[in-house]
Write a structure and sequence with these properties.
This protein has 8 helices and 7 strands; from the N terminus they run βαβαααβαβαββαβα. With 215 residues, the chain is an alpha/beta fold. Bound molecules: zinc ion (ZN). Zinc ion binds next to loops. The site of zinc ion has 7 residues, from loops.
């Protein structure tokens, strides 16, 4: 089964990818993870990617496509994969289709996990940090007293990345990038929408039902 996974940050995409990867015994390919690993190991690819990321730019298509191309040729991808974080644009999606065609393969299904921006903002901006290293989340793991660390009584703070304005901007970028992609896969009748507002377990069950009915 060759799966493309779409969904905004905070919809639980990564979690679902890991579960499905185990269940179907196919690799979870996250282009973001591949970049991060290469950057950490200071490989030539990592150095190249870092230059773009540090400048606040997207890594160019040809670099991303090379990575995907190499990864798809590894043995574990022979029976399928879950692609996470790629493709991001129609151009990438079309090139991905070409690449798969060369391998006599195609995308079987596009799993689109959705959730309202309202909820995503709550999930993504709920993290609170303490100088002692303890982290909290206003929904899942709130401190006993608002804004105060349970362990050391220090005031909690919000990381810049978690600020509501930053989170909203990320979502705007996501929608702008992904809407055309959703149209592209809808035209190809590949897309299946799932409600990411449900619990992780419920969403997993619904995805598995659909995948197993197709397997
Ligand atoms: Zn603390």
């Amino acid at each position: 089964m060759r799966i493309v996974l779409l969904g905004p940050p905070g919809a639980g995409k990564g979690t679902q990818a890991k579960i499905l990867s185990k269940d179907f015994n196919i690799p979870h390919i996250s282009t973001g993870d591949i970049f991060r690993t290469n950057i950490k190991m200071q490989t030539p690819l990592g150095e190249l990617a870092k230059r773009y990321i540090d400048a606040g730019k997207l890594v160019p298509d040809n670099v991303t496509l090379d990575i995907v191309h190499d990864r798809l040729r590894q043995e574990d991808c022979a029976v399928g994969f879950i692609m996470d974080g790629f493709p991001r644009t129609i151009i990438q999606a079309k090139m991905f289709d070409e690449m798969l065609k060369e391998l006599n393969a195609k995308v079987d299904i596009v799993i689109n996990i959705t959730a309202s921006d309202n909820l995503l903002v709550k999930r993504l901006s709920g993290r609170r940090m303490c100088q002692c290293g303890k982290t909290y989340h206003l929904i899942n793991n709130p401190p006993k007293r608002e804004g105060i660390c349970d362990v050391c009584n220090s005031p909690l703070y919000i990381r810049d990345d978690d600020k509501e304005e930053t989170v909203k901007e990320r979502l705007v970028t996501y929608h702008k990038q992904t809407c055309p992609l959703i149209d592209y896969y809808t035209e190809g009748k590949l897309i299946q929408n799932f409600d990411g507002e449900k619990t992780i377990e419920e969403t997993t069950r619904e995805i598995l039902d659909v995948l197993k009915s197709r397997a």
